[in-house]
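In full, the data:

***
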Amino acid sequence: MTTELSHAQSASLSLKDHKFPYKWLISGGYPAKSIEYHGMTVMTTFACGGGSTMGYKLAGYDVVAANDIDPQMAKVYKANHNPRQFFECSVKELLIRDDLPIVDVLDGSPPCSVFSSAGDREAGWQKDKVFREGQAKQVLDDLFFDFINLVEKMQPKIVVAENVKGMISGDAKWYAREVVRRLQDLEYKCQTFLLNAATMGVPQNRSRVFFIAHKTNKHLELNFNEPPITYKNVRLSEGTEISKVTNAYKQYWSQGEPGGSIGKFKSIKKLHINKVANTINATSLHFDAVEPRNLYKEEIESIGAWPMDYNYCGSKPHYLIGMSVPPVMMAQIALKIKEQLL
């Protein structure tokens, strides 16, 4: 699917073309068209800022519990989502608890930098990692299997696990196959999907792998074809500056091609006005298509389909949004699961 629109198409794009709004307020009661609360329950692990949580709520689910090992993420999550149960610990520690809820869906996004094409890949496998907020060391490529052990303990009807597309490429393919095999050993039918948020009503090219496992004889179909939302639709003439642009960056900006990298900074992109924005990630800031500046906070929130009144509790917006599943992306998947499996 092309991610470029003509000026006329882009100018006429409106909310009516999309199932979920990409500009919204968390205080607005999770707005969506014709999506009723149905009470199916979710526990989300590796919750980060709650991207998945907001997606499930947009699709009418009740998120009854959440988990994250990171104290800062726990603070942010509690401030925005007021969870009934929050487990600030490793997933491995959840395995010995006796107060976990009974839920329809167990969700998880194990940290994925060891599989990302922008990360360490194979060089980082089986090595302890410490995140910037300073929690305990963890071997990141073991976390997915800790999550599967939690599946065995909790026995949810549906399992949803998300990761980067690098998990199904190169030497990492064996790992993805092992994830599927272990879920099958628990008598789950596991389907693997590579999805791009740009086809799901998110103003961002963000490809992610989803493992969705269930104990039904049904076959889940995930087909999305919503009109792309280009940077033109989210760009502002003014807003809240994220960080100031140095003279060096201005020089690189003038040399960068629209949609391409800025000089030697391969992970920093100069956006294209008539194309969907590049992936927002946790470690770099993208640049405006028209003038030499970073994106405004409000633009980053729109690109991430993130609520405009979110409380970051001192975290950088692009870091938290880049670390999380876009809420609208998860809402689309959760709605299909409800319609086809639950």
Notes: Residues 5-13, 116-134 have pLDDT under 50 and may be disordered. The domain at 13-226+326-340 is CATH 3.40.50.150 (Rossmann fold).
